[in-house]
Amino acid sequence: MLINYIGIDYSHGKEFEENRQRGMGYWLLVIVKTRALFEINGEKIEIKKPSYVLLQPSTPVRFSPSRGNMVVNWVNFSTQSGDVEWLKDIGIEFDKAVPLSVMTELESLCNVINYEHYLADNVHNYIEADLLRILFLMLVRQTKKEDNSMLGFPKGKFSELNNLRMRIYAKPEEVGSVDEMAAELGVSRSGLQHMYKKMFNIPISTDVISARVNSAKLRLASTKFSLREIAKLCGYQNEFYFMRQFKEVTGMTPTEYRETL
Predict the structure, then answer these.
(1) Beta strands in 18-129 (DSSP E)
(2) CB hemisphere CA count around 118 (13 angstroms)
(3) Which residues contact 134 (CB under 8 A, 6 or more apart)?
(4) Which end is more exposed in the chain, N or C (fewer Cβ atoms within 10 Å of the end residue's Cβ)?
(5) Are 99 and 143 a contacting pair, CB within 8 Å?
(6) What predicted TM-score, i.e. pTM, was given to this entire model?
């Protein structure tokens, strides 16, 4: 895929209307951030929440603001052999408005793509093509979140749970008890345990142990720290509990693990 033009945070006033009954003449990805009216292949659609619309070159389309200004990110691009099949394979939908959930990741990536597009070096075309593919993959991810609603969770909890798991694996030594994590998310202990297991298919306590043991493995392999020091760095209160839990997970003591390296 080759980007021809890209626009970030374009704002169209109430008088704006794009009317292309013979199609845009090129592939157009529109990420709609505000309310808008679309008519695609004769079907009228009112967009009420952030959505993406991927228009094929010959698709008849008309779109305009619904209330106030219409704010969009858009990418005008060309396809090469295999690109359309790839888009279909990953689950991208054509010629319809597809609701999205969280926009933060998409916003950041769109800004990076925009930056790359206007660089003058000899590799930016390759980088922006790969970034565009990543953008489509992220759109699919956001669509799946929306389709699940997500798994019946309260609004916003999907992202909070993802961020929590990221923190657990990034810095397991800083993660508190299940009660403390539940309080951070504003849910009960049992509520957090239920949502976490439903979303990641693993109990939260088991995931914390896994993160701490993985962190310990890395330190055992790459440092000469004592077991007491490693236990503390991985979030354990004492080395004996650390050694017992490490053996339960790996089948060997930390010392035995270090000797195998």
Answers:
(1) 18-20, 27-32, 36-40, 43-47, 51-55, 61-65, 70-78, 97-99
(2) 9
(3) 109
(4) C
(5) yes
(6) 0.64
- Distance of alpha carbon 241 from the chain centroid: 36
User: What are the tokens at 258?
Assistant: 């270090």
Question: Rounded to whole angstroms, how far apart are CA atoms 40 and 34?
Answer: 18
Tokens representing 109 are 């990536």
Phi/psi of residue 187, each to 5°?
-130, 170
CA–CA gap between residue 100 and residue 122 (Å, rounded): 34
Helix 204-222 to helix 239-250 angle, to the nearest 10 degrees? 100
How do residues 163-192 score in pLDDT, each as one tens digit?
A: 899 999 999 999 999 999 999 999 999 999
- φ/ψ of 46, rounded to 5, equals -100, 120
Buried b (16+ CB within 10 A) or exposed e, 225-235: eebeebbbbbb
Q: Which residues of 9-44 are buried (b: 16+ CB within 10 A; e: fewer)?
A: eeebeeeeeeebeeebeebbbbbbbbbbbbebeeee
